Amino acid sequence: MARLFYLTQIEIGEGAAQCLPAECERVGIRRPLIVTDAGVRAAGVLAQALAAWSGGLERLDIFDATPANPTEAAVRQAVALYQRAGCDGLVAVGGGSSIDLAKGVALAATHPGPLAHYATIEGGSARITDRVAPLIALPTTAGTGSEVARGAILIVDDGRKLGFHHWHLLPKAALLDPLLTLGLPSGLTAATGMDALAHCMETFMSVAFNPPADGIALDGLARGWQHLERATRNGQDREARLQMMSASMQGAMAFQKGLGCVHSLSHSLGGRLPRLHHGTLNAMFLPAVVRFNAGAAAVREQRRLERMAAAMGLPAVDGPDAAAQAVAQAVADLTRRLGLPNGLAALGVTPEDVDPVIAGALKDHCHATNPRLATSEDYRTMMVHSMRLWSD
């Protein structure tokens, strides 16, 4: 039996941000805490996102200290402001980090104890209740899809990068306005876009029974694959920005099926080296995981790799092994064209990082939902193959 839930109220298209006052009124938010980061605020994107708010920014309480990888310490700081200002809900304006941090605040401001108590791998999902503060999300990147996802990824006080999952964490509304992404630098466009592609690809490779999610993921992959280079090379390409925003949304709508080894490795390595961007890490691991997943019986029987290759517009191939090689090579080639690093070694990952990353990946909530269960040696092979993606 499969339980399907789609999803939250979504406004997508140019001008969607103008719906913010009405959406706050609809869900009962009268005094929001705005969660963002310093870069979004300095670039003027925050003011653009909140332009429809009566009275302007000076009448709002704003937390703009979101780190690149959100932490429990940052959650505590934001909760203190939330409580001091008497806020009754949150508006997240930013990328996945700001949205995930806002989810952490919505949880921590209404539930006692350390965040780890509510982590998925600690059995914490059952402890999350409907007391979670309401949240509205306005993404300024097209990558994580956190605006339509029930989960958040946060680094807790003991250094682990953990997932938190419950439908009560799902934003009450998602306002997807591609105009908020026009100023995104090319490097960040590429990295976040690869995050969106990884979500679509990895959730489609999952063999959990969820046909609607499969269709959404495959369509999102086709949109993202067709438009990511355009968005990266010309940040003012409004059609490409809209299509990437949709691909990001679709990846997150679909990944309730579960993700896999790409994310178990990325979460573990990102917790160990928080300076590394999650989307970039996904791009580094994706080719090796695609090849590994070609050995899964259900992936072969259901022709999942061949169907992904077709959605990507690759030449027709015969069989799952050839499809895996074609897809993996196409991903590596795309990362090079986008100007992303040539593997983990180029990011400063060393052999000393391998064993701790493997240990963390084996404990990650995405490990068990990969279509082929990985051993520590399988993860070691993936790490080795991800150190360098192409020959110069």
Summarize the structure in words.
The chain is α/β, with parallel strands linked by helices and 392 residues long. It folds into two domains: 9-180, Rossmann fold (3-Layer(aba) Sandwich), CATH 3.40.50; 184-386, Dehydroquinate synthase-like, alpha domain. The chain is 47% helix and 9% strand. It has 15 helices and eight strands. The strands form two sheets. It has a six-stranded parallel sheet with strand order 1-8-5-4-2-3, sandwiched between helices. The protein has a two-stranded antiparallel sheet with strand order 6-7. Strand 6 and strand 7 (161-165) form a beta hairpin. The longest helix has 23 residues, at 211-233. The termini are far apart. Belongs to the iron-containing alcohol dehydrogenase family. Keywords: NAD, Oxidoreductase. Its cofactor is Fe cation. InterPro entries: ADH_Fe/GldA (IPR001670), ADH_Fe_C (IPR056798), ADH_Fe_CS (IPR018211), Alcohol_dehydrogenase_Fe (IPR039697). Residues 9-178 form the Alcohol dehydrogenase iron-type/glycerol dehydrogenase GldA domain.
Nutshell version of this structure?
It is globular and about 60 Å long. The chain has helices at 20-27, 38-42, 45-49, 72-84, 96-108, 186-205, 211-233, 238-254, 261-272, 278-293, 297-301, 304-311, 320-337, 354-363, 376-386; strands at 9-12, 32-35, 61-63, 89-94, 135-139, 151-155, 161-165, 173-176. The protein contains 15 helices and 8 strands.
* Largest sheet entry: 6 strands, parallel
- Rounded radius of gyration (Å): 20 Å
* Helical content band: 40-55%
Order of helices and strands: EHEHHEHEHEEEEHHHHHHHHHH
In the CATH hierarchy, the architecture of the largest domain is Up-down Bundle
Strand content: 5-15%
CATH superfamily of the largest domain: Dehydroquinate synthase-like - alpha domain
Could you say how many structural domains there are in total?
A: 2
| Lateral strand order in the biggest sheet | 1-8-5-4-2-3
With helices defined by DSSP (H or I, 4 residues minimum), what is the helix count? Answer: 15
For the record, give the distance between the C-alpha atoms at the N and C termini, rounded to a whole number.
Answer: 49 Å
Q: Which residues form runs of ≥5 with pLDDT under 50? A: none
Report the CATH C-level class of the largest domain.
Mainly Alpha
